[in-house]
Design brief:
mainly alpha; Arc Repressor Mutant, subunit A; 10 helices; 0% strand; Homeodomain-like_sf; HTH_TetR; HTH-type_Tx_Regulator
């Protein structure tokens, strides 16, 4: 079975393990999710998970690494106007956060409760890559206080994504507040 999106895995059982682990890790946290929990939800045994990933840490790292393709997509530059490029980058980043609520939660948890040096290093590289691209675009658009601007935009985004994740079972709308947030960021932060 071929899976669409950032998952590059063909094996259906392995894909189910990854998707289930991602869901459980984001809901319960890395430390509160066992290999047995994942196996029970998938309907397989622990040895199958160990066969594919060897350790719970490797499984977690595989999930985090699946963020890379979506970050590369965000970084595509098609416009020449610096303001348009920056706005496009910010909007794509925010939409990606709304689309990957579970992965955002995993990254946040890893920053607060590090899983391992390797997982922390991967998240740090992704964050640095994202900020570096933002900084280049903001400098081209002649923005000041770039680190403050970046932190303000994405801290607000993460807060709203986290609130949506908590109420997702009630509303079933993972994009609640997206349009309002995009409008607010455009009128508050992306003006000179």
């Amino acid at each position: 079975m071929n899976v669409k999106g950032p998952w590059k895995i063909v094996d259906n059982n392995k894909t189910q393990i990854l998707l289930t682990a991602q869901k459980l890790f984001s809901e319960k946290g890395y430390r509160n999710t066992s290999i047995r929990d994942i196996a029970d939800c998938v309907g397989t045994n622990c040895s199958m998970i160990n066969y594919h990933f060897k350790t719970k840490e490797n499984l977690y790292i595989q999930i985090i690494e699946n963020l890379w393709p979506s970050l590369d997509y965000i970084s595509s530059d098609t416009e020449t106007d610096a303001d348009v490029l920056l706005k496009d980058f910010v909007f794509k980043s925010i939409e990606e956060a709304f689309n990957n609520t579970q992965l955002i939660q995993l990254c946040l948890e890893t920053k607060i409760f590090p899983v391992s040096e390797k997982a922390d290093s991967i998240i740090k590289k992704m964050t640095e890559k994202h900020f570096s691209h933002f900084k280049i675009l903001a400098e081209k658009a002649r923005y000041n206080h770039i680190k403050f601007l970046y932190t303000s935009i994405f801290a607000l985004t993460i807060d709203i994504v986290s609130q949506n994740a908590k109420s997702a079972d009630l509303s079933k709308d993972g994009h609640a507040g997206l349009e309002e947030l995009l409008c607010y960021i455009e009128t508050t932060f992306l003006v000179q």
